[in-house]
């Protein structure tokens, strides 16, 4: 026994959560059960995105098991609008949320039931509103301006215009990566203006079906999500008193986040499930015609996807190793840190050698894409196996806000490919 003070504990820097959703074989990552190098050969090019259908299915099953059975689960397809993904998701969830006429087309092509499709988004053009009425989907009204064209389309087509009111609440989703409600916003109708809007909906004879509230995105704090859902419910309940018809759909938003950066953990579903159970009980009494809906994008698809790009050059600049790859922010803006992040941090990244064995000695390397801008950064000084030309760099947590959220035309490189495996 020594009475010397023990040395200060070595502080381990924050780590990424392990990407254990993907299995490995002989040290090589498997996507959709296939070794990555073989999948790359099958795709025939890099860069590409690959989404794992079994992981998508497992995620939906995990949510269904946790959440009350009466809560409807919608997929907000702007997170990943690849038609094959939307078709797969349409078979798993209760409804699809679209944000443009283009997304509406993909959802309907995918076989989504129009009765369970909703259409939100600011600046809906008259033609989009008319397309939505003709399709028979629920339109989340974001502005009083939308009412007249909806009534006109309804009269012209001889079809009801199914509407819900998207409310801009008087609170924000605390701790969310991207706030989309509270204060002045382009989204939804300010809560205080909703009673008058509801009267106008009644006067015009539109088919009122409910409310939509969406406070924000990418939240990893269950308490904040519960609080937002609780407040959203209260607000909708008070507004329901002014509604021209019973509430059929009460969309409480989502905002469930996934861990992207070192130090971030998995969202704890248990408190959210408990809170929703309590709200579902209340709704059964207070809004007896209403289904509670939650709409999720990245939580459903984000962890099931990877972006794969190939090392074109390994260069050394004043002691720093650079792996220059054939794709970067032109395909994956969010991994480069330029999609709304305040401080750039690394996504989880791994290296797969073109020729085995995998693993081996590591070094600190910076992974950059081929664009002539310092913003084209995929991994900043990460410890990776020593890489050679031809090896594959894998960016995890890439199933949401990837290809469709990136400036593919910037610098005129070839497009990436997307596969669902
Ligand atoms: C973007 C968006 C979503 C999806 O957000 P995620 O963070 O991907 O879950 C859901 N609802 C609305 C209204 C949105 O605009």
Structure description:
This protein folds into two domains: 24-50 and 303-420, Lyase, Ornithine Decarboxylase, Chain A, domain 1; 120-296, Alanine racemase (TIM Barrel), CATH 3.20.20. Helix content is 28%, strand content 26%. With 421 residues, it is an alpha/beta fold. The strands form four sheets. Strands 4, 16, 17, 18, 19, 20, 21 and 22 form an eight-stranded mixed beta sheet that branches. It has an eight-stranded parallel β-barrel with strand order 5-6-7-8-9-12-14-15, surrounded by five helices. A three-stranded antiparallel beta sheet has the order 1-2-3. The chain has eleven helices and 22 strands. The chain is globular, with a radius of gyration of 24 Å. The relative contact order is 0.16. It has helices at 36-43, 53-66, 83-90, 101-109, 126-135, 147-157, 194-204, 222-240, 269-286, 298-301, 333-336, and strands spanning 24-25, 28-31, 34-35, 48-51, 72-76, 95-98, 117-119, 138-141, 162-168, 176-179, 189-190, 207-213, 216-219, 249-251, 291-296, 305-317, 320-325, 349-352, 362-368, 377-385, 392-395, 417-420. Helix 5 (126-135) packs across helix 6 (147-157). The structure holds pyridoxal-5'-phosphate. Pyridoxal-5'-phosphate is lined by residues 76, 78-79, 97, 120, 214, 217-218, 254-255, 295-299, 400. Its EC number is 4.1.1.20. InterPro entries: Ala_racemase/Decarboxylase_C, DCO2ase_PEP1, De-COase2_C, De-COase2_CS, De-COase2_N, Orn/DAP/Arg_de-COase, PLP-binding_barrel. Keywords: Lyase, Pyridoxal phosphate. Belongs to the Orn/Lys/Arg decarboxylase class-II family. The active site is at residue 372.
